[in-house]
Amino acid sequence: MNIGISRDNLQAVIITTVLLALAGLGVAWWLHNYERVEESVDMPRTGEARSNPLYVLKLALRADGVKAEARPNLQRERHRLGERDTVLLYSDPRTLSREDGRALLEWVAKGGHLLVRTPPPGPFAPGTTVPVLSQLDVVPARTPLQCAGWDVPGQDKHVEFCKGRRAELLGTAGELVLGWADSGGNVYMRIAHGRGYVDVLSDFDFLDNDSLKDAPHIVLTRQLLAPNYKAGTVHLIYDADMPSFWWTLVRYSWMAWLPLLLALLAWLWLRAQRFGPLQPAPASERRSLLEHVVASGEHVYRYGYAHLLHEAVRNAFLARLRRRDPQAAALGGEAQVLMLSERFNVPAAEIRDALSTPIARDHAAFRSRIATLVRLRNQL
User: Fold this and answer.
1) Within a 10 A sphere around the Cβ of 252, how many other Cβ atoms?
2) pLDDT for residue 1 is more than 50
3) E strand map for 144-255
4) Contacts of 232 by beta carbon, 8 Å cutoff, 6+ apart
């Protein structure tokens, strides 16, 4: 017995073998050139970590046993400052009011520690009053922006204050205790004021959430907070001029409100009035029916059958009266006339005439009775 393979089966076997070989070669090439690895991807910041640039600093201070609080505004009425507290104003000092500036200096004189920056680069008119700085005779320098070297033992060379405006101490309102300066002015000054200190820096870029992970920034931050470290609460004022709720909603929540806005506009467009041609005239069949009814009434009236038209109008009035006022409809004769007169505030004689059949060919009496019945029916 001979067992053979047909031509079609042989072609299927060959094609299957070739495909399996190609698939095997592809898998071997993939495994040879690629390796399975794990990769960590940072999730987008949410909550306070997204709105507070000093959030990492607050957590680091708390982890080191320092009582730290962060808020967007100073809020002196709600948050009383202790004599050994520290206040860090992260934003432009020009956003402070003069009253807040005076209150902060009075608090510093009792032993507080205030850290403030110079106004950021940009238009700055000479003689502009800056809260706290102007009262300490500190003026922003007009020198070009340049970096200051900051070397920490065991760390690579580092530079700071590259984007900040330097400052100069002109008067004797405060005593300079520490300074970091070169030919371009001071990038850092510690000024004694009463029993406390005011630190003036070019900027606070090294304190934000992304920069505080570097060791030179950590060392610099620790030295800045040294005067009252662990002696009181550290108040981190990260934004004295927060954007409004609506601006934040427009900028960060457009994925939600934009589709809703488009859906609303589409619905309004569907419901809007169309400015096209005038609506077509009523169907000719309906107009012909109305004309036929009018012509039939005129024909009946012309041939002396006005009493039939009056009877039809009176029956229509009585039919609605039975639906709206069954008690009046159940009466008859003079009792019904008096009750209708009282209900409609119409003389009894007029109602009596309207319910009675007019004399043939008396056009005025017919029109008067029909008009009265129609008016009374409409009032029901």
Assistant:
1) 12
2) no
3) 148-150, 158-160, 167-169, 175-182, 185-193, 196-201, 234-237
4) 67, 82, 83, 84, 85, 86
Sequence-ordered list of residues with C-beta below 8 angstroms from that of 327, at least 6 positions apart, any chain:
339
Sorted by sequence, the CB contacts under 8 Å of residue 199 that are 6+ apart come out as: 113, 114, 115, 116, 188, 189, 190, 191, 224
CA–CA gap between residue 316 and residue 353 (Å, rounded): 16
CA dihedral 18, 21, 25, 27 (to 10 degrees): 110
Which tens digit of pLDDT belongs to each residue from 180-196? Answer: 887 778 899 999 999 99
- Calculate the CA 355 to chain-centre distance: 68
Query: Taking the mean position of all CA atoms in its chain, how far away is CA 244?
Result: 10
**In angstroms, rounded to a whole number, what is the distance separating the alpha carbons of residues 136 and 138?**
5
Q: Are 187 and 166 in contact (CB under 8 A)?
A: yes
Instruction: Give the chain's count of helices (H) and strands (E).
Output: 13, 11
**Is-contact 85 113, C-beta < 8 A?**
yes
> DSSP letter string over 3-68?
----HHHHHHHHHHHHHHHHHHHHHHHHHHH--------PPPP-THHHH-TTHHHHHHHHHTT--E
Structure tokens at 288: 């012909």
Q: Which residues contact 306 (CB under 8 A, 6 or more apart)?
A: 300, 358, 360, 361, 366
359 pLDDT tier (thresholds 50, 70, 90) = confident
Domains detected in the chain: 48-242 (3.40.50), 284-379 (no CATH)
**pTM for the complete prediction?**
0.56
Q: How far apart are CA 62 and CA 70, in angstroms?
A: 11
| Buried residues in 151-169 as b, exposed as e (16+ CB within 10 A) | eeeeeeebebbeebbbbeb
Residue-wise pLDDT tens digits, 104-136: 999 999 999 999 999 888 777 666 788 899 889
At 78 the three-state DSSP class reads coil
DSSP 253: -
In angstroms, rounded to a whole number, what is the distance separating the alpha carbons of residues 376 and 3?
A: 108
